[in-house]
Design brief:
Length: 485
């Protein structure tokens, strides 16, 4: 194994920051074969793993504490002319009170130029954001186990030749399959995104949109008015509405229900993103906004300012033993919700037909600042009054401040601080507010030699939502590979 390959692996473990719209945190950028093996253990004051130990880990770390896990991955990249074949698999064995094996990644991909096709599940973060120190991208954050998909799109920004590189496009479309749960079976995913980048070297202006839809499927637990004999729409008419959402009033057929014709087919959501990147002499600035939408009122910005506002400062002159390398600031709010009117009360990540909400394998797919109802104290759980049943996603009306910091103190140090205020009903004067503070301090990559790295992470929870808690995670990781760097 060459030193250059090992150095690349270390860079991946410690400095995988990017603002790519479809960031894929894997190591398959070099021809050859690589492997990674990791042993981790964690403990906490309570039986629940603290927030910043388990969050944004692609479902690898469970809620239960204490525990241990073995994380093994193998991947390769092979090139033949203009074609590149990639494949990777990652398996995580969780040893807790309820042992299980999780598969965060298992895919095969084919690339040519800027275009790629892949089949399987791959670790991804979608949306315009910082990927190293963020609280989580709004719609697709890397918090949950990835969804199995067939995806066709660009693998990075593809310059339009006639603009001499001044305009570049990044886009994809995919079809996916949600893992079955007790309440929902055979649910599909439709996702797509289109981003445009303007500018060169000194500055870049970004704009784009992400669109995700849960659709189709079967449930034996839904009320008759919400399904056709338990089945949710998945015919050609439904797909056209998923592909290009539009009103279906007056167009009901044997598969569409009144719920579908009054709303849209499936659980539709996403974000409209804007960003500005400035590359200055010794540092880089990235300003970004992810505007949340749940329906057409959100697309029309009637729910503004709901979404994420972010600023990232990042040095471009690394190499010192003591150095501040990156600072990320985010403000998150979801209190407007398009107001009180008939098109308002946007219920982010929750849908009357899809009982589990915007969740995959027990983890929120989007921003992890939203929580599943079953993960919080009974006193704070809300019900869906129209259907007289618990909400699947709770506490999705919030205001939060988040700070992320990375410094070099001989080894990389990362600090995350998040202060959140949850509101049970933002439109009531007597609404209840619940405050939560979570933080972590991590040494993610302590070099021990011969491709071996240690890691430490301390996390703390204080507030109304999670139990007063503190926890520690330690890890030992071995990386290596064969082939050309």
């Amino acid at each position: 194994m060459s030193f250059r390959f090992l150095r690349y692996c270390l860079w991946f473990l410690a400095y995988g920051s990017a603002c790519a719209q479809f960031n894929r945190p894997d190591t398959l950028s070099h021809t050859g074969l690589y492997y990674q093996a990791e042993l981790s253990g964690w403990t906490a004051q309570r039986s629940q793993t603290p927030f910043w130990l388990r969050t944004n880990q692609f479902g690898a770390l469970p809620w239960a504490s204490p525990g241990a896990l073995f994380n093994g991955s193998l991947g390769g990249r092979w090139q033949a002319g203009n074609w590149t074949l990639k494949a990777s698999v990652q398996a995580v064995g969780q040893l807790t009170r309820s042992p299980q094996v999780v598969l965060p990644q298992a895919y095969v991909g084919l690339e040519r130029g800027h275009v790629e096709l892949y089949v399987g599940r791959r670790r991804e973060i979608n949306g315009l954001t910082d990927t190293l120190l963020t609280s989580g991208s709004y719609a697709y954050s890397g918090n949950a186990v990835p969804i199995t998909q067939v995806r066709l799109g660009t693998r990075d920004y593809a310059p339009l030749g006639f603009t001499k590189g001044w305009v570049a496009v990044n886009a994809f479309m995919s079809h996916g399959w949600f893992t079955d749960t007790d309440s929902m079976k055979n649910v599909w995913l439709h996702s797509k995104a289109l981003f445009v980048r303007l500018g060169k070297q000194k500055w870049h202006l970004y704009g784009g949109v992400t669109h995700f839809v849960q659709w189709g499927g079967y449930s034996a637990y839904l009320e008759p008015g919400l399904t056709r004999n338990g089945h949710l729409p998945r015919n050609w008419t439904a797909f056209k509405n998923v592909l290009w959402p539009g009103s279906l009033e007056g167009n009901a057929n044997d598969q569409l229900t009144g719920h579908d014709t009054l709303n849209r087919v499936g659980n539709q959501l996403g974000s409209i993103d804007l960003g500005l990147e400035l590359n200055l002499r010794s540092f880089q600035l990235l300003f970004y906004h992810q505007h949340a939408y749940e329906d057409m009122s959100g697309v029309a910005f009637q729910n503004f300012p709901d979404g994420i506002f972010g600023l990232r400062w990042k040095t471009t002159t690394p190499g010192k033993a003591f150095q501040l390398r990156q600072l990320t600031l985010e403000y998150i709010t979801t209190l407007n919700r398009s107001g009180r009117g008939p098109k308002g009360y946007d219920d982010y990540f929750y849908n009357g037909q899809y009982l589990d909400g915007w969740v995959h394998e027990n983890y929120i797919i989007g921003t992890p600042l939203f929580t599943r109802t079953k993960d919080i104290p009974y006193a704070l759980r809300q019900t869906y009054s129209d259907l007289n049943r618990p909400r699947s996603v709770n506490n999705n009306a919030l205001r939060a401040w988040h700070v992320g910091l990375e410094a070099q103190v001989w080894v990389p140090v990362q600090i995350l601080l998040t202060r959140t205020t949850y509101v049970d009903d933002p439109f009531r004067s007597d609404s209840h507010r619940f405050r939560q503070f979570s933080m972590s301090v991590a040494l993610p990559a302590i070099p021990l030699g011969r491709g071996l790295f240690g890691g430490l992470k301390l996390a703390l929870d204080r507030g109304d939502l999670f139990s007063q808690n503190a926890g520690l995670l330690f890890s030992l990781r071995k990386v290596g590979g064969w082939g050309h760097p």
